């Protein structure tokens, strides 16, 4: 066990420690100093650092003095370095009480500045020019003692540290890295390569331009070659076309086709001629037919003319015969008719005589009958005159009577009114009943009354009783006066009316009315009787009839004259008339028969004579027409013409048939098809040839234009150019490839060298890392710093790791350094002030195991506020109390 | 009375040299016309009776008008008859260099375009040239067939002119197209059969010759660069054939193996021995293995020769540059650089061809840059 080991620490009047604090019994291996927060763990570490690395007279000493403390801060340390045990006492003060005493247990002793220098040399640190000491000045302690709160920061080696660590394998290092010259060479090679490639490895600069030139040329060349290829193909095409054209010429294809067309044309001409001949022949036949028909017609017409004359002759003869026959028939019939006419005339004369006699006989009979009638009529007229006189007398008497039925009724009504008014007066009048003794004289009014009776008084009346005096009776009632007046008016009215009617009383009026009615009845009866005698028209009509009958009698008497025709027997006469009528009817019927026969024959004769006349005229006309025709053309001439026309027709028909047969022999349809075919062949050939010629001309023009450009030379020139660029490019490609390879190789070698430099640290570190994080490899750079971890081939940079892992790795890399240093006997110790606060339980356990292992090689002091977690760390455990 | 003919072929005027870039290639192209002028000059000097060109006068039917004119102009020195035969490069197609020449009206009176298989009578009827022009680029028929049936007078020399491959006589790689019967000279009673197509000068059968191209155009060493002067003494007699070199440029191929440190001096010595290097085109194939330091020296040597020769084409695909221990020591490489060098070395020996090449070049670059840093 070598290195740097603390045994005892005593601190007094140092910052929060106003009383002396002692930590003792610290062991060579793992030590844990536990304390609550604010218990002073960090102050303790600061005190140790101050004791070792700060000058006791430094201004910084005042910072260590507790506030207002009179006594100066002091620290006492017992420690061993490289096997030599030392006791150190330092009091921080610029005054007399400040000082440092270092006592080795071999008896050596140093004081004051001398002690400070010795200590610096012994522990390999430097004093700061000013202020408090800083880790970078504190040598290995600066590296290996971890302050609270900075444990997760990357571990930085300063030059001195690194030299110290690297010093361990200095020779090896020098071998691995090529030194400055290697680096300069590498940079130079990189510069060369960068002339060819950019950062992304793409060609750049002249190299790129050369490539582009090569590509451009290749393209141009390809284009030029294609043009040349096209040109050559066109040349071949031209050759082919020319050969084909030559074949056309050599084989005389067009000429042969033309010859064929010509031959066929001749045949066609022949056919056309034949066709014309047929057409002419057809026309000639048609004309001949026409002529023949005409001649035929003329002959027929003549024959018909002759026949017509003959026919008219026959017709005339027949008509003459008929007339003769009818004249013979008519003579006897006319004679008989005339005889019968005479008979009828005689009969007519007798009938006229007879009819006269018959009239006279009838007139005489009529006169006899009408005379009787006149006598009867005269009697009736006399009676009718008597009746009429009676009726008129009654009516005259009636007219003298003035009272009519109505008048009577009015009079009777007036009379009743009077009676009624009188009655009423009586009803209202005062009744005076009396029974008078005999002898008493009593006057009522101006009338003397006696006996028993009653009287009605209608007005003031004086009753005078003899001897007694007088009584004035006044009848009561309202208008007895009025009633009395009305009665008087009524009586007056009646009287006046009676006067007007000329009667004395109503009864007389009644008698007058009765008489009137009797007279009306009398007139009426006479009228009815008259009506029976002269029913129609009354008396005047009867008088007229009487006169008419008298006139008639007179007229008949006059007509008959003297002989009054009583001698003629009407019935005899009438029988004779009837017999005569029958005779006459018979004779007349007979006469009518003859008359009709005669008149019919007469008609027939008439039309027969007409027919005869017509026949004569027809015959005359026909004869004239025929003789006119004959004057123009004789009959036999017509016959000859008809025969000639028939022969001509036959001849033309035969000629036409000959022409038709000739045409059929030429097969015109086949020839038409053949000439069409031949013409098409010729056209096609000409067209093909023309096309060929045109193509040849065009191609030749094209090729001549192209030929001038010297395409082949252009291609060859481009090929040359391209070949040169290719050569240059190949050269540059080779160089670029070589530089690339060189850079890659150098980089790989450099990387390997760097890895080799870091290897000692890595080897130490790996031992711990495998326990902490299985499967992880450390990545250490050539400055021996921990760059990161490699897990599954992936590098995670230190800064990317979790804070817990970072503080654990920071501890491990320090342990690795410490291991390296310890191996070569450098005095090291490791102090960790709450360096693992971010670790989980499992990691902390692993770390504790690792710390315990490391502590077998050097002293490790762990300051922690989590004392409980470190109880089982396995080292010396001390609790820092307040 | 002897008749002298100048037999040439395969001028291929207008030919471009894709594998010879830049000015060197342009010069080659122009030289072909210059050589034609030389031929015309030669014909005049030697007073030949006619010049027969056995096909491929032009590299292509589609050369420019200017090329056509220049070619006609180049014939000017010799005013005797020229018979120009279409070959496979300039076949007498419907549209061809020949139709174009006629149309342009630039064909001199003494120049006969033999683009139809019809006998051409020259030298007042003493010479009948029977041409077999190609009328398509490739023909499987023997176009010289008609020679057999063509009759001429007994005093007339019969000379065939054709372009193609004589059956059964040429090396196998020769084209099988455009065949010519091997005994055509006999069967057609020819005094001489002037052929073109094969670019080397070659007497291939009795009285049957390829003149070859007068101006070499490839690295094939089959004796190009000549024309033939043919003397016909009497009909039926064997002709006298003289080969005259007219070619300007020399095309050569060399193979060289680097075996040790001294090899570079040996190579330099070999190059020193080239005649007229400015007219030489050299294809140099290098093989062997060498250090990086030596490779650097080799590159300097080749750059030097590139400037001295008309054209130098180096094929170093068979040359391996290996960093030796000394190279690496010289690099002074330590640490990762050394590691990289070792990686590249491994790749150079074990990788694919591409990797090997890249690795070799990478090492070379690394070496040069390191040297530059040290300087």
Keywords, separated by commas or semicolons:
heterodimer, A: 882 residues, alpha+beta, Rossmann fold, 6-stranded antiparallel β-sheet, 5-stranded parallel β-sheet, 20 strands, 67% helix, 12% strand, B: 375 residues, alpha/beta, Purple Acid Phosphatase, chain A, domain 2, 6-stranded mixed β-sheet, 17 strands, 33% helix, elongated
Description:
With 882 residues, chain A is an alpha+beta fold. Among the domains of chain A are: 4-177 and 782-879, Rossmann fold (3-Layer(aba) Sandwich), CATH 3.40.50.300; 300-403 and 503-666, no CATH class; 430-474, no CATH class. In chain A, 67% of the residues lie in helices and 12% in strands. Chain A is flat, with a radius of gyration of 99 Å. The two termini of chain A are 33 Å apart. The mean pLDDT of chain A is 84. Chain B is of the alpha/beta class and 375 residues long. Chain B folds into 2 domains: 3-245, Purple Acid Phosphatase, chain A, domain 2; 250-374, no CATH class. In chain B, helix 9 (335-350) packs antiparallel against helix 10 (353-374). The mean pLDDT of chain B is 87. The interface between A and B is large, with 59 and 53 residues.
Pattern of helices and strands of chain B: EHEHEHEEEHEEEHEEEEEEHEHEHHH
**How far is the N terminus from the C terminus of chain B?**
79 Å
Number of domains of chain B: 2
CATH architecture of the largest domain in chain B: 4-Layer Sandwich
Q: Structural class per helix/strand content of chain B?
A: alpha/beta
State the name of the first-level CATH class of one domain in chain A.
Answer: Alpha Beta
List low-confidence stretches of chain B: none
Radius of gyration of chain B: 27 Å
CATH topology of the largest domain in chain B: Purple Acid Phosphatase, chain A, domain 2
Helix content of chain A: 55-70%
**Which architecture of one domain in chain A per CATH?**
3-Layer(aba) Sandwich
What do the pLDDT scores of chain B average to?
A: 87
Biggest sheet overview of chain A: 6 strands, antiparallel
By CATH, the superfamily of one domain in chain A comes out as: P-loop containing nucleotide triphosphate hydrolases
Distance from N terminus to C terminus of chain A (CA atoms, Å) equals 33 Å
Query: What structural category do the secondary elements of chain A indicate?
Result: alpha+beta
Query: What does the overall shape of chain B look like?
Result: elongated
Number of strands of chain B: 17
Beta-strand portion of chain A reads 5-15%
CATH homologous superfamily (4th level) name of the largest domain in chain B: Metallo-dependent phosphatases
Q: Give a short account of the largest sheet of chain B.
A: 6 strands, mixed
